[in-house]
């Protein structure tokens, strides 16, 4: 069996190991995922309060993200510490975006 040059090259690719990630990067990734999980009920509540929201509507998506991000910011300010800092530095908006895209 002959392999083309591209097939031979693909067999020699190196995979990225989790050992190359720093502990802080892994922790931040875990926190971002937890924030997205926490944002889902907020996004669902927004959707329940806006039954006419359309999944393909950019305006509805933006409104959901804004509402959820505000709630995340309020929670982050109340909690403080590293979680509050992560939310204040954009983690709340990222979590809101993920949650609203899932719900809508």
UniProtKB/TrEMBL annotation:
Organism the protein comes from: Limnofasciculus baicalensis BBK-W-15
Compositional bias (Low complexity): 11-20
Region (Disordered): 1-23
UniProt protein name: Uncharacterized protein
Chain intervals with Basic and acidic residues compositional bias: 1-10
Top-rank taxon, per record: Bacteria
